[in-house]
Amino acid sequence: MPKQTSANINYKGLFLEKVRQNYQSLILGFLVFLVGLSVIVKLFYAPKQKLPAEKKAVTTKQEKLETQANKYKVKEGDTLWAIAESYYGSGFNAYDIVKANKIINPDLIEIGQELLIPSVEPKYLTKGVIAEVKTEQVVMKESKYTVKQGDHLWKIALEAYGDGYQWVKVAKANNLSNPNLIFAGKVLTIPR
Questions:
Q1: pLDDT at position 187, please?
Q2: Fewer beta carbons under 10 A from the terminal one: N or C of the chain?
Q3: Where are the beta strands (DSSP E) in the chain?
Q4: Structurally, what CATH architecture does the domain formed by 69-117 represent?
Q5: Per-residue confidence at 25, pLDDT binned at 50, 70, 90?
Q6: Taking the alpha carbons of 18, 19, 23, 28 in that order, is the dihedral positive or negative?
C-alpha cells in the first residue's frame, strides 16, 4: 500500500465528506454563532443609542419641576415646615422643598432667600391639626380608646384632654416605643 503524502490527498473531497456526515451539527453551530453574535451586538451597541433619550428625559423632568414650581421669599420666623403647610397643608412636604432647592441643612434658611416650591401632591395633612393646641371641647371621657384608621396621638390627646401636647402622657401610659406608629384596632389607656 502506497504511503499517502500531502500531494496525493484530496482535501476537497475529505472536507465535503465531513460536511455531508455532520451537516446537522454544522447548521446548529452556525445558528448558535448567529444568536451569540446578535446578543453581543445588542449588549455593546444598544445602550449607546438609548443614552441621549435618557439624558433628555432627565432634563425634561427637571425643566418640568422648575416650570411648575412657585417661588417663595423667606420671611423672618419662617420654617420649612410652616412654608410647606401654607402651600400644601402638610408640613411633611418640607422635604420636597429641601430636595427641590438642594438645601444642605434644612434648619438654616435665610431671610430673603428665594425658594422653589415644587408642584407635588400633599403628604399627610397637618395644617389645622397641629395648629389646634388646646380646645374646650373634650369629647372623650373614657379611660380606654380603640384606635381608628387615620388616628394619631395628637388628635387622641386633643379629644381626651383638650390639649394636643398631652400626647406624651398617652404614649408613656401605653409604653409606646414609637409614638408615630399606632395601628387601627389597638386599645390605648387614657390616663385620667
A1: 94
A2: N
A3: 70-73, 114-117, 144-146, 187-189
A4: Roll (3.10)
A5: confident
A6: positive
Q: Which amino acid appears at position 69 of this protein?
A: A
Angle formed by the axes of helices 80-88 and 94-101, nearest 10°:
110
pLDDT tens digits, 61-103: 555 545 556 889 999 988 888 888 888 887 788 889 999 999 8
105-120: average pLDDT = 89
Q: Which three cell numbers stand for residue 10?
A: 484530496
Distance between alpha carbon 156 and the CA centroid of its chain, in Å? 30
What is the Cα–Cα distance from 125 to 122, expressed in whole angstroms?
A: 7
The grid cell for 70 is 412657585
Helix, strand or coil for residue 133?
coil
Question: How do residues 36-49 score in pLDDT, each as one tens digit?
Answer: 888 887 777 655 44
Q: Is 95 exposed, middle or buried (0-12, 13-18, 19+ CB in 10 A)?
A: middle
For 46-82, give one letter per residue: b (16+ CB within 10 A) or e.
eeeeeeeeeeeeeeeeeeebeeebeebebeeebebbe
Which helix (H) or strand (E) segment holds residue 47: the answer is helix 23-68
Grid coordinates representing 107 are: 434648619
User: How, if at all, do strands 144-146 and 114-117 pair?
Assistant: unpaired
